[in-house]
Protein: Glycoside hydrolase family 19 protein
Organism: Acinetobacter corruptisaponis
Amino acid sequence: MSFKNLQKALGLDDDGVVGRATLTALFKRLGASQTRADELALAANVHMRTYRILDNELRFAHFIAQLAHESGGFKYMEEIASGSAYEYRSDLGNTQKGDGTRYKGRGPIQLTGRANYRKYGQSLGLDFENNPQIVALPSIGMLVACKYWADNGLNELADKDDVLAITRKINGGVNGLGDRKAKLEIIKNLLGKN
């Protein structure tokens, strides 16, 4: 696999260095609008480096594939469903009436639950618990996704090419595993794996 192959597949200069142009083109290819692709790429270009996701192609492939699944091809930064299914889910920290809707999935990784909004807000110095809607901003959501990825040891699981374990860490189960695997193959193909 090679970032040069990815750049060639996206019709870009193949210098092998993933930057904003490469990320913008990839997000667009996977379904994002131009504006959304630009916003995501701006944040991803910084935060994917900080959280060592760009250290190798396998980490990159798994990260992008999981986020592409969670966000419907980077089209949705907020869960389409109301979130009422998460009401009173103590495993998510949803203990008060309205928490399910208030702390529904947001950002490209679909951060869900009061406990996660509190945890990631506090660790990033942002008040997500009182302002949950800001996680839906593409730049903030990408930061959260990168932090969540690193905090949950997903770089190491990606290094082992373990899509099942990564899916369980992100989803809590294996919902959408087939689509996650399909998206992973798409990214690997763009990277020249096959």
In short: Residues 1-75+138-194 form a domain with the Lysozyme fold (CATH 1.10.530).
